[in-house]
Structures
1.
Amino acid sequence: MKEIEIASFDEYREIISEHSLRKWIYRGQNNSNYKLESSLFRAFAKNASIFYRRKTTKKLKILKGRETEMLNSVKRNAHLFLEHYPKPKADFDWLALMQHYGAPTRLLDFTFSPYIALYFAISGANLKPVAVYCIDYESFEKKQKERHGENYENLCGRVLKYEKEIDKSVLICSEPEFSNTRLLAQQGVFLIPNTLDYSHEEILKHYGDDDCCIKIIIRFKCFRQIIEELSKMNITAGTVYPGFEGFCKSFENIGSLSVRSIRHITNE
């Protein structure tokens, strides 16, 4: 994976200006050391080490069978909490809904907007460098099709199956049919593996990711400039998280921006 370290918002804008609309997808992470791993992949790894101190690899395979049970449980009980929910057989839409409400899933959130990804990278960050992952998914999908040929579509359809061989792992970029206001506001899209044996980052490496995946590392010293520039573009918590929750979250940068950013203008 190609890494580029930048020191200003202008450098970031210069890099992404060469990317075609909706051909590239982006993910911001508020620590540059974090890898591209789904919440379910991390949960399995953590819980296997906690509850099964020996033979972790064998127990990890057992845990993977519980993904379907978790999905079925959500389907059975969603009507108790929600008025609207996906069709019973629309598993991907159910996974997206579960992701929205905080359940661990194999989905990894991306966005078509490099600026929204940048917002997520610096949101909640501390003094450590952050990162934005940029994936030329159109080129990556082409690589997958070239390797698997006619079998590619079949692999994409086996989202809840477990392919054991490295050369049969794929990543699928998709938008759910059953959307929500937050997903729309964030221009959200998901990257979905057809296997849980490998993380998203490991699957990218299986195909040689150097020419279609860029990791932009951003140092702390330019955070303030980025916050100000994103605010000018109206990319704040208030727009990324629609509703009162987003409005309250929009005060997260209260110490770094001028008080003019929230002061009410009046004629009095």
Note: The radius of gyration is 20 Å.
2.
Amino acid sequence: MLPWLSLRQFWFAFVGYLLFSTILFMGSSFTMLAWIVYLFLLLPVYGGLLIVLLTLTHRYRGWRLRVRSPLAIITGMTQILAIITSPGNCYGFKQGNQCYSLAQVWWGNVGEISFQNQPPHWTAIEQAFYPLLAIHVAMLLLTTVTLRRSSASV
């Protein structure tokens, strides 16, 4: 487990994580499809978590919180996996082509893409983006819900 934090310390750490996470997600996505998914799925969840945190701060003023380490680690791992599988190149997306994943853009053979030169898709990785993003959101919610609370000043 991570050390006990006052609500103020937890507030700064959590808001810092959400800001860093948003910057990381938005900075790693080079396509409009990924931006749309992040703006309309991820940011409302982050906003809801901030509202929950405000309610928690008001209700448990003076208490200390502790985050469960395994859940925090799994949440970070699912975030990294969601970023790696996010759309990285969507050439021909409007014509019905599937987006290449960021993993294939980084480590694959996606160079200059044209209608004559279209490398094969890594379909399993490309289709894992939405489930991994949903798992990341679920793990973030689970991490928030399972916070340990203590009224003692440790």
Note: The chain has a mean pLDDT of 81.
3.
Amino acid sequence: MQRYEIFLRFNSQRKIFFLILYEMGLEDRDVRRIMGITQEAIRSTRYRILQNGKK
């Protein structure tokens, strides 16, 4: 198992990793490339993080 697959298995770690990349100021295309996800996945991850923050 490769290291990046560990982030994909645990949803909370994936969100934390996403937030770190986002806070570093990376653009969506860079985050997509690093995480190996689609634009739709970025959009839904961002939405879920915002929804969790409102609770």
Note: The chain has a mean pLDDT of 79.
